[in-house]
């Protein structure tokens, strides 16, 4: 222990960073270090324009969950949206996401990402042809997923609609889905439907034998089908829709793909944009979080449902998940909502500490949150969960999203997995 006194406080931090898998550039600023076999890395990439979660699984299998690019014109008031594109507006989100992934991709893998999961068909998760300035040779517009594929091959896609895209009604009148299907057919990318209840529909494809006893992905819900907790059985929580009025039909968010990723004792929950806090008069089955809560055990880390918008993160789900760490994928002033932020820290729902990370926090959001804003971790940017081999412990690293330096702004943990 005497030797520690030879170092300054800053040096000790630096040595600790090295020990936990980050390197330093010559200026002394720590830089994110590459994935190694056995790590599970989960990158919440912040483009300011929607969700993109890039996962490198312990054997090097790569999974991207969503690649959003919001319509730059606000449909509510027909004015340009003011969210800046990060790191800057010289490129569009799909290309920025591809470039980020290329920087962290396992060296062995040059053939592209193994899986892309699209949780649901909204612009902030898949992109939109509306106001997209560029088109591919095949005629479809480039935005989000379709743009990303110009820069990075995708080997397999899972979505909630393949092959007919008819639930809860035909999706082939929706411009986002029309453009996406055009893309799928043109690029001939193998696709399949995300099926609730399935264990390892997304599976390790590189060195499965080494890690498959410790690693799994359980599909919890999609399209109103929810896992029962037994085998791969599901129950349908939506009613017969023939008698349901048009304004109460299931919306796109309620149909999101929901999953839990497990590595040893470590668990990560991602539920797309499902909701659980209902407006007056909505039927109870519009709450998808509560039936999901019934089959979701405690997790270490949760990606907030629906960006922490006011209709998400109900008490039943939070009590079931009891996360130690929350990641808020924010791109609007309503992310997270004030009541949601209060609930995240509510010890009457579950006791114990929790750390909440947001990719970005708008000044208006900060003002609306009041005292809860001070409880959020102060550093924003790309948020990376790095899980150690075997899933025993993990850290949270916040990376600078102002450029492509991969500079580390903060490191939290290690946290022990449950
Ligand atoms: Zn969304």
TrEMBL record:
InterPro entries: Competence_DNA_uptake, RibonucZ/Hydroxyglut_hydro. Residues 1-24 form the signal peptide. The keyword Transport does not apply. Keywords: Signal. The keyword Ribonucleoprotein does not apply. Gene3D superfamilies: Ribonuclease Z/Hydroxyacylglutathione hydrolase-like. This is Metallo-beta-lactamase domain-containing protein. It comes from Arsenicibacter rosenii. The lineage of its organism: Bacteria, Pseudomonadati, Bacteroidota, Cytophagia, Cytophagales.
């Amino acid at each position: 222990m005497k030797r520690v006194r030879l170092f300054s406080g800053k040096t000790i931090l630096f040595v600790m960073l090295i020990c936990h898998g980050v390197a330093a550039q010559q200026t002394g600023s720590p830089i994110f270090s590459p994935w190694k076999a056995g790590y599970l890395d989960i990158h919440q990439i912040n483009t300011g324009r929607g969700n993109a979660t890039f996962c490198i699984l312990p054997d090097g299998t790569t999974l991207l969950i969503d690649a959003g690019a919001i319509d730059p014109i606000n449909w509510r008031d027909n004015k340009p949206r003011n969210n800046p594109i990060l790191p800057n507006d010289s490129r569009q989100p799909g290309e920025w996401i591809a470039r980020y992934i290329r920087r962290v991709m396992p060296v062995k893998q040059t053939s592209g990402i193994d899986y892309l999961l699209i949780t649901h068909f909204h612009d902030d998760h898949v992109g939109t042809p509306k106001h997209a300035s560029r088109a591919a040779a095949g005629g479809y517009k480039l935005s989000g997923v379709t743009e990303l594929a110009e820069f990075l091959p995708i080997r397999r896609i899972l979505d909630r609609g393949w092959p007919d895209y008819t639930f809860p009604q035909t999706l082939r009148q929706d411009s986002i889905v029309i453009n996406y299907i055009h893309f799928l057919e043109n690029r001939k990318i193998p696709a399949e439907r995300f099926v609730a209840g399935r264990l390892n529909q997304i599976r390790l494809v590189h060195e499965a034998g080494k890690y498959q006893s410790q690693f799994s992905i359980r599909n919890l819900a999609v399209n109103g089908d929810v896992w029962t907790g037994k085998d791969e059985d599901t129950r349908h929580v939506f009613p017969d829709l023939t008698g349901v009025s048009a304004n109460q039909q299931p919306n796109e968010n309620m149909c999101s793909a929901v999953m839990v990723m497990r590595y040893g004792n470590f668990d990560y929950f991602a539920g797309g944009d499902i909701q659980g806090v209902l407006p007056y008069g909505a039927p109870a089955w519009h709450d998808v979080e509560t039936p999901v809560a019934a089959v979701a055990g405690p997790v270490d880390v949760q990606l907030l449902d629906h960006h922490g918008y006011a209709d998400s993160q109900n008490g039943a789900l939070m009590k079931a998940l009891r996360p130690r760490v929350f990641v808020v994928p924010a791109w609007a002033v309503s992310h997270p909502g004030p009541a949601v932020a209060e609930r995240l820290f509510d010890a009457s729902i579950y006791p114990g500490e929790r750390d909440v990370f947001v990719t970005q926090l708008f000044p208006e959001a900060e003002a609306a949150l009041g005292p809860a804003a001070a409880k959020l971790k102060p550093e924003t940017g790309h948020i990376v969960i790095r899980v150690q081999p075997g899933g025993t412990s993990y850290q949270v690293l916040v990376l600078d999203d102002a450029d492509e330096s991969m500079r580390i702004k903060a490191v939290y943990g290690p946290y022990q997995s449950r």
